[in-house]
């Protein structure tokens, strides 16, 4: 019996070694082949106790596509998979450590480590934004950043960029919510590094994993600023990023605003500008970036005018804290993440608010290429989307079921509280939303 076990262990380790070697050779040969042919690269606190879509043409140059937070359909509806890696001449693909960390974090953590805790990023704003001036007195902001097993340097660059590029007078606090991270460097080592920001940082450690939606609710419940600003944990804010958001909300507390989301390439970590786009979605409930109509940029502000957006990506936005509470926060019965961005977008528009993208506010974001526990995520996303469909889409939910009939029999929990919320807020119909906010979705109803 002992010999059998030893043989099994030997063959298992041999198999793992061969697979690792083949994978390394594969990426190395692809890299060399691409260089030789010179073809274009493939597309793509402390606790509170003080302890602690389409590419878009703008002129002669084609701008890079911003990161897309896509709500994925079931696997059989996915037409094609994204490539595992986008090859880059500066990356050694024969290094198994690069591949191991890419698999763990969903982006090139080796380069992230070399970049360290902070860096300068290019100012990607339109030159017209540089002429804008903002009042000294603006609402205060609580920045809520939730993370789970985030790469250490990416998280610190997020925090450092906020601290460096946000006026002290408007920054009430940064609330970090650790949603049961397992990595050692996110424990005592993180506490030690955050000591530098003592006085502005609150670090909350959840006792169990809540998922992004409920973790954000925890962070928001502890905030004291006038405005809640939600950021993903792998962002880098740009110059004068917060003032445009705060000014818009100061003028209208029922206006929810998003920055333009620049691209931080997941393989090279280069910071690239995004074109002016708006958020949208289709009948599969997939979020996408969409063209902005030319007439929206025909006014005196031109390309820096606020853009009315049918939907938000959800990872990065600002909202008046009192208004966030008044309109029902997030649906706390949604699981993990996914779908909450569209649900909140519909609720904002249908219940008397507005949702805009502000081109003079820029925040870079890494579009990770890996989803942890993908099967669990897809299940949660389906559940969350169904809750939204049955509360907000009225008779138009049949358009969703026409495309995915199997969803009709899938459970979505008790929605009576959210239905009552809609009645209490006196929200308009989904047909009103189609007629007034997003008629392009109605026009696509016959295209499955």
UniProtKB/TrEMBL annotation:
GO terms for cellular component: Golgi apparatus. InterPro entries: GalNAc-T, Glyco_trans_2-like, Nucleotide-diphossugar_trans. One of its GO terms (biological process) is spermatid development. It is a single-pass type II membrane protein. It is found in: Endomembrane system. Pfam families: Glycos_transf_2. Its main location: membrane. Its cofactor is Mn(2+). Residues 142-324 form the Glycosyltransferase 2-like domain. Belongs to the glycosyltransferase 2 family. GalNAc-T subfamily. This is Polypeptide N-acetylgalactosaminyltransferase like 5.
């Amino acid at each position: 019996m002992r010999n059998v076990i030893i043989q099994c262990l030997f063959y298992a380790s041999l198999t793992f070694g061969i697979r690792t070697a083949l994978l390394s050779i594969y990426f190395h040969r692809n890299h060399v082949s691409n260089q030789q042919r010179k073809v274009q690269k493939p597309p793509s606190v402390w606790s509170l106790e003080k302890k602690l879509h389409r590419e878009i043409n703008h002129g002669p140059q084609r701008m890079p596509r911003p990161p897309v937070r896509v709500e994925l359909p079931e696997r059989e509806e996915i037409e094609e998979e994204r490539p595992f890696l986008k090859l880059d001449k500066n990356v050694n693909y024969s290094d198994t450590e690069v591949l191991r960390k890419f698999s763990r974090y969903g982006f090139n953590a080796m380069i992230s480590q070399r970049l360290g805790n902070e860096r300068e990023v290019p100012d990607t704003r339109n030159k017209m934004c540089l002429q804008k001036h903002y009042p000294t007195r603006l609402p205060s902001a609580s920045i809520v950043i939730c993370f789970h097993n985030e790469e250490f340097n990416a998280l610190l660059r997020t925090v450092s960029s906020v601290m460096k590029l946000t006026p002290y007078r408007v920054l009430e606090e940064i609330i970090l919510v650790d949603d049961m991270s397992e990595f050692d460097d996110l424990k005592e080592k993180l506490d030690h590094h955050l000591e530098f920001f003592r006085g502005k940082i609150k670090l909350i450690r959840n006792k169990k994993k809540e998922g992004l939606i409920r973790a954000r609710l925890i962070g928001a419940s502890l905030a004291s600023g006038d405005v809640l600003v939600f950021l993903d944990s792998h962002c880098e804010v740009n110059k004068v990023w917060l003032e445009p958001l705060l000014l818009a909300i100061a003028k209208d507390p029922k206006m929810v605003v998003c920055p333009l989301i620049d691209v931080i390439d997941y393989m090279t970590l280069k910071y690239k500008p995004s074109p002016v786009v708006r958020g949208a979605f289709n009948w599969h409930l997939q979020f996408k970036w969409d063209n902005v109509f030319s007439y929206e940029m025909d006014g005196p502000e031109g390309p820096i005018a606020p853009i009315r957006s049918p939907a938000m990506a959800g990872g990065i936005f600002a909202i008046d804290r009192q208004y966030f509470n008044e309109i029902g926060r997030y649906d706390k019965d949604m699981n993990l993440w996914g779908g909450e961005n569209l649900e909140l977008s519909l609720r904002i528009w249908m219940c008397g608010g507005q949702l805009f993208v502000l081109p003079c506010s820029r925040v870079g974001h890494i579009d990770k290429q890996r989803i942890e526990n993908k099967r669990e995520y897809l299940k949660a996303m389906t559940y969350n989307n169904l809750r939204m469909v049955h509360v907000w889409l009225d008779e138009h939910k049949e358009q969703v079921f026409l495309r995915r009939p199997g969803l009709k029999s899938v459970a979505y929990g008790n929605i009576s509280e959210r239905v009552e919320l809609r009645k209490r807020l006196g929200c308009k119909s989904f047909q009103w939303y189609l007629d007034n906010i997003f008629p392009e979705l109605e026009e696509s109803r016959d295209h499955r």
